[in-house]
Each structure stands twice: as structure tokens, then as C-alpha cells.
Amino acid sequence: MQIYLRTTYHVGKHHCLVITVLCILLSLLSGGLSAWAQDDSVFESAKSDSGTETAVPSELQGIFTSGKVPKSIVQLQSLEGQFARVSEAAVACTVSIRIGQSQGCGVIIDGDGTVLTAAHVVMRPGRKATVILSNGRKLEAKTLGLNRNVDAGMLKIDPGQNDGKEWPHATMGTSGKLATGMWCIATGHPSGFDQERGAVTRVGRIARVDRWVLTTDCALIGGDSGGPLFDLSGRLIAIHSRIGNDVEENLHIPIDNYTLSWKRLEAGELWGTLPGFRPVLGVQGNSQKPDAVIEEVRPDSAAMQAGFKAGDTVKVFGERTITDFQSLKKAVSETMPGENVRVRVDREGKPLFLRVVIGRGD
Amino acid sequence: MINSIMRNILKKTPLALVGLMLSAVPQVSSAQFEPLARRDNLMMMKLVRPVAKKIEGAVVQVYSGDRPVALGTVVAEDGFILTKRSELDGDPIRVRLNDGQLLPARVAAVRRSNDLALLRVEGDITLNPAEFTGEIPPVASFVISVGRKSTPIGLGVVGAKPRRITHQGRLGVLLQDDRTGRAMVRGVFAESGAEAAGLKKGDLIVAINGREERSRLGVIETLRGMFPGENVRLTITRSDPASDPTTMDVDAAIRELNVMRESESDARVNGPRNVRLTGFDQVMQHDTVLDPNECGGPLLDTDGNVVGINIARAGRVVSYALPASLILPEMISMLAEARAASR
Lengths: 362, 343
What we know:
The complex is a heterodimer of chains A (about 350) and B (about 350).
Chain A: E1 2-3, H1 17-22, E2 24-25, E3 28-29, H2 61-66, H3 73-93, E4 94-99, E5 102-108, E6 114-118, H4 119-122, E7 128-132, E8 138-147, E9 152-157, E10 171-172, E11 183-188, E12 200-209, E13 214-216, E14 228-231, E15 235-243, E16 250-254, H5 256-260, H6 262-266, E17 270-271, E18 278-280, E19 283-285, E20 294-297, H7 302-306, E21 313-317, E22 320-321, H8 325-333, E23 340-347, E24 350-357, E25 359-361
Parallel strand pairs in A: 8-17, 10-15
Antiparallel strand pairs in A: 1-3, 2-15, 3-5, 4-5, 4-7, 5-6, 6-9, 7-8, 8-9, 11-12, 11-14, 12-13, 13-16, 14-15, 15-16, 18-25, 19-20, 21-22, 21-23, 23-24
Chain B: H1 2-21, H2 26-33, H3 42-53, E1 59-64, E2 67-76, E3 80-84, E4 93-96, E5 102-111, E6 116-121, E7 142-146, E8 152-157, E9 163-165, E10 169-170, E11 173-177, E12 183-188, H4 193-196, E13 204-208, E14 211-212, H5 216-224, E15 231-240, E16 243-253, E17 255-256, H6 257-261, H7 264-270, E18 280-286, E19 298-300, E20 306-315, E21 318-323, H8 324-342
Antiparallel strand pairs in B: 1-2, 1-4, 2-3, 3-6, 4-5, 5-6, 7-8, 7-19, 9-18, 10-17, 11-12, 12-13, 13-14, 13-15, 15-16, 18-21, 19-20, 20-21
């Protein structure tokens, strides 16, 4: 098991400095995770009508809106009581997501089974995914759109899997009025889904707010990617994305980034590149020519490590048929750094299969 | 949009660099990020200080071979202290009391299955024991870790329901039967105790801790009973085509499987951890940021009840505590054993 993108960290150490400090993506490439136990018998959907919103007691209103610390132990105990209520509702709609070899989290946000997650968990639109509820029940789902500029992704649980009932879901909040110091509750499956343990709750405060990214001291690690962050009233305010080395650098995608491009995400569009996470193969060719002929393989590139040679003609890249260099470029741009892709090339008239681990550019 | 993202990244660069350069002094680097907005900042610690004071005098610092390796929780007024056993790897063992006195101590009883040691402080002293309560706080409750001076050293919340953590201790060898059914090394894991001890492919493991092992399954079963952080003495026979086989003893450490297997970057984000992170009958998982040598001390709820003892810093998001309901029977039997032996 390894945290996504780990393999490419040592390429070009100097210019990757910012990334290694601030952005370690949180999804997992799962190795041999043990089989998941299933328990279909008890799935509580009692909360499904109301979402996760939890009334904030009057004595906590000041703390809720100002982001201050409690003034007394009594107030502290009221705060932890509120955490417990939000946490219970949050865990019910926090899901584990498995797509191919990659594992992350997500949060159901409506009764129909729309799930918000991170773009690097979704990777591409239109893929089959497995969604695992907190009780271990596995569901089929399909990936929708992703805005890679901010790492926002969406998927949908296939219909007809809940006897017509609504899925337990989070209440959407907004991220426009968040302020430093506000208390928040994070849930997710750190290090991957573990039936015996279940989702793990963490509590922290907002350290830094900007439009594209939120920093908190809710400690996250590989596997938490795509999991939800709630405010003290149980409203969804952000989605987990990446971490820095320091335990206090935990980065989330503010929820307004989803709301603002909802239609595009729902329609399954893919756009943007996450800064520091541009997928790179490391070959050059001529886009004007009819075939995707490789003219040059860059030294120390992903392509060189995979055994590409100048003169190879790329025929198939992952699930894509390649017709010219332009279509190869497009196919590479749809992958994620660290992703393992099977490639068919023609070399001296004979077909050859290569496996490449996609590299990372700025 | 992309431009503004780039601006953000550029804006962050100096801070990120500062963070990296000062990583040996985390307090300084984090203070430069946002001094106030932390759940365990000075204001929060000040708020819970009266809670920690409720067990005044019940926490000691434990030294092993002159290093502060753990905290200890006083469990009997005539000088008995519970601590994390796997950290006690060197002599002398000493404890520093709440009042600053540094006194010699000895291990009076151990419970390997939960990594507990009962220390007996030498000297005519009367201590103030912690009183455990059976209640495990619900998920998302605050928990307070207390240091030697009866002040809070960490604040976090319970993250999951209590559960068992099966131990993941491994010597780090792949074994196969040789012609006579004995355990022959087929491969050695990187970063393992076997690698550090110099085990090689083809070595026969013929005895463990002086007890003869005749089969591969026997070796596997014996090794399975060894917890992370423990050492084993292996007697191995090494064949050499040029001369007669040689038999020798090597000492090897049992290590955590997941730590052996993790990448460099996983190790970095996880930060310093204990040698033993698994093998507990029941744990409370919480997210308090602790140093590995801050285990062994008591964990309090917000009413000041002693709900457990911190037993491992297991990763970036995980600290484990043994709950009071597990500690109590272990403590009673260890005290009985120690008192019977000294009679």
C-alpha cells in the first residue's frame, strides 16, 4: 500500500520542494487489503430526511460563529457533545471509494446518492467505482466530472440499490463565510477501509481560509482523500485533498468550488490540472504525422523507465486507442501521476506491451 | 483562474520553505503558520489545566539508560508505577517524581500482551496514585494527556470505538522447508530485523532463544508469539560450498510489518513513532499529537476521570490508549505478583 504519487517524488527534487511540503495527495494505491465483511442487516437511514445538520446549542453560538475557544470546562463539554452529534451523522454518510487500484473517501450529499470526493480519487469520468458504506455494504457507482484545478470530483451511486429509499446524506453548507479559528469535524478512512474500526473522526480548527483551499489541524493521512469536513452545525464545508509534512498542514477543497461548477461536474466534464500534479509521460513526437511515433524519449522520464524507445509507435494507451501524437497527449492528460498504465506499442513491426507509471510535472 | 492558483502557490512558497527548514523545531514553524487557530494551542491547554491538576502527583517521567523514554502512571502509594514496557530497553531504570526527585526503579512485573510494565520505585516514599474509572468516552469526546508536572501535554478527541489491535510483529524472513522439513530462509525483507542481523538466503533456523526448532511451522509459531520491539536469539546453520556448514547465534529485532513496508514519504508524514504500535487487547484511538516518549502516562476525560493510559504513538493521525477497563485487572494481578515476590 502506498500513498498516491509517492513513486515520483524523487524526480527533480529541487523544484518539487513546495509539493513535498504542502501537497501529498491522500488517496491510496491498495495492495492486498483484506476482504471486506458485509453486513446488510442494519443500515440506519433514519437521518436521511434531515441530513447532517445539527442544531447548535445557544451556549455555543458565539464559538460557532467567531471561531473562539470555550471559556469554561462546562462550555468545553457542551462543545464535545456537539462534536459527538455531528460525528455520528457524519459517519453515516462518509463512504469509502474504490476505483481500480486506488482507494479514497467520499460523502453522499443527497438522497439519490450523489457523492462528492477529490478529483484525484475519481481520476476520469465514466469509470466504474465501488462505494462502501460505513457498515461495510458495497455499492456500484459511476464517476462523473472533475475539476482538477482545485481537486474537486463527483460520482453517483447507481440507482436501484436501496429499495427506493433515500441514502443517508450530508447537509450542504457554504465555504464563503468561513473564518480562522472555526471548529470543524473531519471523518474518513485513514490508511484505507477497515471494517472493524469504521470511519475515524477527527476534530480541529480552521487555520487558513482561501477560495481554493482550506487548511486545518484535523490530522489526515493517505486514504482520507475525498472525505468530508463539517462545521459545528453539521454542514458540509469542505472535502479532504492533501497534506504537508507537518501534522497541522491538512488541506481541504472548500465546498463552494463544487457548488459553482455543479452542472459541469454532474455532466461528467474533466478540466484543469492540479498545480504540481500534471501527468507526464516524457516522450516527444510530431502531431502533424498520421501515427503516434515517438521521436525522442526524455532521460529519467517515466517513459524511459518503462522501456519506451525512439521509433516506437503507440497504438493503445490504457483504455484509449491512439491514432496520432495528439490523441496520445490527450490520453496522457487524462491520467494521474503515479497511475500504472498498460501501453501497446509497435516496435519494428511487432506489437509490444509496456507498463508505465505516469510521472509528474509542474 | 489558473493564474490565481499559481499566485497562491507562489504566495505559499516562502512559508513552505520555512516549514521545511525549521522542521526540527515544530513549535516555531507552526507558530509562523497561525498561532491561534489550533485546537491544542496555549489557550486550550490553559483551559484544561484544572482538569489535569485533579491527578496531581500521579505522573512520573521514566528514564531508561539515562534517556527519558516514557511517562509512568502511579498506581499504588507505596511506589508502584505502570508504564510502556517496550521502551525500557536499557539500564539503569529511574523515575523522576512530580516533586523533581530522581529515584532508581526496577521492573516488578510485565504483561507482554498489552506492553505494560509495573515499576517499583526504590526508596521510602508515599505517592499519589491515579484512580481509574471504567467509562470509555464516546467518539469525538476530548481527552487530555497529562505530564509529570500535572499539566496537560496533549489534547485530542476519541476517533473510533474501542477495538482490538492484532500485533504485526515480524522477523522479516520468507521461509521454506529444507529437505528435512526445517526452516530455511528463502528471502529477507528490506528494513527488517532479519536484514539488520545479517540473515541470508539459505540459512537454516535451528533454534530460537535457545530452544531447538525442528520444523518450519514450529519456527513460524514461535515467531508469531514475539511482539514488535522484542529481540530474539536465533541459532542458524549456514552452508558454504567451500567448507563445512557453520552454526552461529545472531540477535534479531522483531519489527512492525507496516513500518517495514512503508515508503519514505509515508514515514515522513507519520513522524516519530514507538517501536511497538500493535498487539493490544483493546485500545481507544485518539488524535492527540504525542511524542513517542510521552506514552505510559494517564489519559483523562474532561471531568478529570482517568479513562486510560497512553500506550502508543502509532502515526500521524493515531495515538492509542489502553482503556481503564483493561488496565484495572492487569494492574491488580501485576501488583499481586510483585507483592508476592517481594514478600
